[in-house]
Amino acid sequence: MNTSKILLSLYLILAVILAQFFVAYFFSKGKTSYRKAFSALVLCISIYLFGYLMIINTNNLQEMIFWNQIQYFGLPFISVLWLLVALLYTKTIYSLKTRTAFLLFSVPVITFFVRLTNLWHHLFYTEWEMRQTFGYYSLYMERGLWYYVNISYTILCLLLTVIIYLVGYLKNKAGYTKPHFLVFFFASILPLISIVLIIFAFKEWAIDYSALIMPLSLLIISYGILKYDFLEIRTLAREMIFENNFAGMLVYGPGNRIIDYNKAAEKFFKTINISLNNHPIEDILARDPNLLEIFESDRSCDFSLMIDGEERFFEIDVVPLGDSHDGNKRMLK
Asked: How far is Cα 77 from Cα 36, in angstroms, rounded to an integer?
């Protein structure tokens, strides 16, 4: 067996094992939106890498086409899940709403089915060819129309991901969390570079640069976990103290904009037919001036509401966040 093929196979095997470890580890640690998204991302990466591992270890064109199809059980979703992890980690969004999911996953889902049915319409790949590269066989595909739609969306997702982490790094004032954004920034920029290489250099060498570079992103994330423990501390603290608390919690930012809330708060507002979102509280409670006055107050208070024909009593504790002289941020519990 060719030495380069052996080394590449070992490299991919280790990457798949590392990816599966991530999936099991983070899924077992909790079930927040962030952990689910990260586990799904790494699972899709492992499927994609395993498919490429099988492709380079066969010299049969039909088998290569089959394993390429297997890759697309994960490949279309990698970039959008990468973006979703960035949105959740930086708290650009706090959970995946149905409308957001539809917006983000429409193109990947269509891509999955277009690739699955490619034999009938050839919109994704028009021709298949087996080529020898550096002593082993690889799969070369002529690209169809939908391939370019998918690759454009992939670039958009990865570019937005890189921008989100860069903005998060520049805006973050806490020195101990700045390295967290840098880790994710560098881990995210590598897949973007690999996509550019695939677009401009694939025809000459028929090398899947994403499969070669993606394991490096996993190694960077591994370094971040071992060095800074950022995924463990940040997510566990949120789960135990905030997300799983039986008391409803709202976090206000400047302008009384809701920047975070837990499940108990969401459930409370749902019982009074109000949907929480990341808008100012005056917009959310615009139709109920009395309740708005209570939730805009910077003092703790008691109040009662009629719910399902029954009067219920509630208590609000206002906790300032950050600088005691700065009333811009506070939490209601």
From this structure: 14
Which residues are within 8 A (CB) of 302 and not within 5 positions of it... i.e. 6 or more apart? Answer: 313, 314, 315, 316
Give the model confidence (pLDDT) of 179-205 as tens digits. Answer: 778 888 999 999 999 999 998 877 777
Inter-residue contact 62 to 78 (CB < 8 Å): no
CB distance 221 to 190 below 8 Å: no
Task: Tell me which of 180, 210, 238 is where a domain ends.
Answer: 238
Which pTM value belongs to this model?
0.73
Domain that holds residue 225: 3-238
User: 291 to each of 272, 275, 312, how far by Cα in Å?
Assistant: 11, 14, 14
The closest of 113, 171, 189, 176 to 146, measured between CA atoms, is 113
Mean pLDDT across the stretch 64-83?
Answer: 96
Contacts 24+ apart (CB under 8 A), 265-269: none
Q: Is the dihedral of CA 45, 51, 55, 56 positive or negative?
A: positive
Q: Both tokens of residue 59?
A: 């010299």
Return the CA Rg of the chain.
Answer: 24
| Structural contact between residues 254 and 277, judged by C-beta atoms closer than 8 angstroms | no
User: 198 with 231, same domain?
Assistant: yes
Taken in order 271, 30, 85, 77, is the CA torsion positive or negative? negative
244 three-class SS:
coil
Query: Where do we find the tokens 């109920």?
Result: 288
Structural contact between residues 296 and 220, judged by C-beta atoms closer than 8 angstroms:
no
Q: Which two structure tokens, joined as six digits, stand for 321? A: 């966040």
252-305 residue pLDDT tens: 766 677 767 777 777 777 777 777 766 677 777 777 777 777 777 777 777 777
Q: What angle do CA 314, 315, 320 make, to 5 degrees?
A: 145
Residues 29 and 136 both lie in one domain: yes
- For residue 216, give the nearest of 196, 192, 180, 181 by alpha carbon: 192
**DSSP 3-state of 224:** helix
Provide the 10 A C-beta neighbour count for residue 145.
13
**Which CATH number characterizes residue 209's domain?**
1.20.1070.10
Token pair recorded at residue 239? 């789960």
